[in-house]
Structures are given as structure tokens and as C-alpha cells.
Design goal:
The protein is of the alpha+beta class. It has 3 domains: about 120 residues; about 80 residues, Arc Repressor Mutant, subunit A (Orthogonal Bundle), CATH 1.10.10; about 110 residues, no CATH class. About 40% of the residues lie in helices and about 20% in strands. It contains 12 helices and 15 strands. Helix 3 links the parallel strand 3 and strand 4. Helix 3 packs across helix 4. The longest helix has 18 residues. It is globular. The termini are far apart.
Length: about 350
């Protein structure tokens, strides 16, 4: 039996499915307990995960349960989060996610990141456990959504320059990603049939058969909003590497009236660091704030022009808006994409 009832919304949602899955694949009924203090962790990790301990195979295992599944996190981002959790809590932590694309799961296995996806796969290298879903060889490997790094590569191809003459390592430097991250993007974009991979000696190049608006129309269904969260903040004057975004950016590019409280964007890890250092102060609501700060999955500065977010990412961040005026203006953004 479960020895303690976990009352948080995320844990209540996960507890039964996780319990059933662990019992099904191990034959053991797990015992849950309260997790140790997490105050040493960065704020963005405490906001993204909730924590609990589970007894499995006679050992205590710390779980980090994703509160709300994001549109997409790349394998490298999950690996980074797992490393920060391990460092902050002083022990291995298994990530628990409701869903995870197969290519991301496979990458996490290769990188040794512990995780559980109830009903799909459990990989706990510290316990020497790897129980995985069996896929048909004929199953499609085309991803449902592109990872943030792959999405950024596609938008760069659309807005900046064809990447066919830019070696993959150099492209990574321009976009602020490691060679390993770009290697993952290369595999993912090839699987999604958006590009071919060309090798010249040791150099790797991405050949996109499509450009501009035509590539956008092919890739857009695989893309997600870059916005992970959008807290209200106080910060006085905007800092470096924050760009105008949201409806504030749309007003700069159209006839839409600007909001009284402007919206900016920063890369998620930069925003988390700024909040931790007190460079930004979180607010309870719009009334106390002088800005709304979007936390992006990739660095908005890379593709910004004149301090304003790029039109493709801006469209993706606003495409689910219920405001007809916003919908009209973001369609104009796409109509103006390069051919």
C-alpha cells in the first residue's frame, strides 16, 4: 500500500498511473514518501517539478514529477535539468513525465538520464533498470513536434540565410548551441523530412530543399510556441538580451495598439538566473508589474531585429490568441515572409 498520500495536484494525477505502471513492470507495489527539502534548487526547477520519494527494490528513489507537460523540451534540456537536480539535491533524481517522444527517450537513455514515462518506459540506470516500450520497425519516426533547437534552425533558414553552406558546428556557434545539440537537431530534422544531411570530410551540412514561406508551411505544424511561462515582473529598465515580444512586439510591426504593460522575452535559463539574483522581481499580478517577461525555450535574441522578436516565433507565441485583431495581424506577418 501507499504509505503516504501526496496531495499536490500533479502528484495526485500521477500517483495512480505511476503506481500501476511500476507494479505492472516490476511486480512490486511501490511505497511513496515525502521528498527532502528542495529550497537549494533554482526557482525555475521548483516551478517546473514537484518531488516525492518512492521505495523500489528496497531502495529510496527521488522523483521529480513534471507539473504541466510543456509543448516540447529537448533531450539536452531534460539532461541539463537532471544534472542541476542531482547537484542541488545531492543524489540521482528520476524525471517523471506524462509523455515523451520516442527520439527524446532514446537520447536520454544514451546520455544516462533517469526517467519514467508511465505506460511507456522506465530507465533507472542507478538501479540497473531499463524497461522500454517495444516499437514496430515499421512505426513512423517523424516527431510530433520539433525540439527547440530544431525549431530555431528552421526559423534561421527561413529568415536569415540558407544554411547549406554553413557547417553544422559553425551554425551551432551562431545559434548558441553545442555541437552535440546541433547533432541531435540534424537527426530530428532529417527524420521529419525537412532536410537532408550532407558530409564533406569532417564537416556536416544541412540541405533544406525548401526555403522561405514554402518551408514555413511545411514545418509550421511541427512547431510549438517558444513561450514556457510568462510571469509579471518589476525590473526598471530592460536588460541586455531581452527582446520585445508578445502583443507589444506585434504592435511595433502592425497597427495594433500597444499594451500599457509591455511584454519582453528572455531565454528560460537567463530569466531563471535573473530572478534568482534579484535582478528581476516577480509580481503577483499586472497591477504591480512594469513588464510581463516571457520565458522562451531558445534565446529570442538570436533572431531578433532592432530588439524585437522574430515574426515566426512571434506568430507561434500568439497563434492561439482568441483576439481577432491579433489573429489578423499575425497572418500578415506570415504573408510577409521571404519567398
Amino acid at each position: 500500500m501507499i504509505c503516504s498520500v501526496l496531495l499536490s495536484c500533479s502528484m495526485v494525477r500521477y500517483e495512480q498511473s505511476l503506481t500501476d505502471y511500476l507494479e505492472l513492470v516490476t511486480g512490486l507495489r511501490p511505497r511513496f514518501g515525502t521528498a527532502p527539502s528542495t529550497t537549494a534548487l533554482p526557482l525555475f526547477l521548483r516551478e517546473q517539478f514537484e518531488f516525492a520519494e518512492v521505495e523500489l527494490f528496497g531502495r529510496q528513489l527521488l522523483l521529480a514529477v513534471e507539473k504541466t507537460p510543456p509543448d516540447e523540451l529537448s533531450a539536452s534540456e531534460y539532461a541539463r535539468n537532471a544534472a542541476m537536480l542531482r547537484q542541488g539535491l545531492g543524489q540521482d533524481v528520476a524525471l517523471v513525465m506524462a509523455k515523451l517522444p520516442s527520439f527524446v527517450r532514446n537520447r536520454l537513455v544514451r546520455e544516462g538520464v533517469p526517467f519514467i514515462v508511465p505506460g511507456a518506459q522506465m530507465f533507472l540506470p542507478m538501479l540497473m533498470v531499463d524497461l522500454r516500450e517495444r516499437f514496430s520497425k515499421a512505426a513512423s519516426r517523424i516527431p510530433d513536434k520539433l525540439s527547440p533547437v530544431s525549431q530555431l534552425v528552421v526559423i534561421y533558414q527561413i529568415l536569415r540565410e540558407p544554411v547549406a553552406h554553413v557547417p553544422l558546428a559553425q551554425l551551432g556557434e551562431r545559434l548558441g548551441y553545442s555541437a552535440q545539440a546541433l547533432s541531435f537537431a540534424q537527426e530530428e530534422l532529417k527524420e521529419a523530412k525537412l532536410c537532408d544531411v550532407r558530409r564533406e570530410g569532417r564537416m556536416v551540412f544541412l540541405d533544406f530543399g525548401l526555403r522561405g514561406k514554402t518551408l514555413w508551411e511545411r514545418a509550421e505544424p511541427l512547431m510549438a510556441s517558444p513561450v514556457r511561462r510568462a510571469p509579471w515582473v518589476r525590473w526598471g529598465q530592460p536588460r541586455a538580451r531581452a527582446v520585445v515580444s508578445g502583443t507589444t512586439a506585434l504592435s511595433r510591426l502592425s497597427m495594433l495598439a500597444e499594451d500599457a504593460v509591455p511584454t519582453y522575452a528572455m531565454r528560460d535559463r537567463d530569466l531563471g538566473a535573473a530572478l534568482e539574483k534579484g535582478q528581476l522581481l516577480g509580481c503577483s499580478g499586472r497591477e504591480e508589474a512594469d513588464a510581463r517577461m516571457e520565458s522562451w525555450k531558445y534565446d529570442p535574441w538570436v533572431l531578433a531585429e532592432n530588439g524585437v522578436a522574430d515574426p515566426c516565433s512571434l506568430y507561434l507565441s500568439l497563434r492561439r490568441s482568441g483576439d481577432e485583431r491579433v489573429q489578423k495581424e499575425i497572418q500578415f506577418l506570415i504573408e510577409r515572409l521571404p519567398q
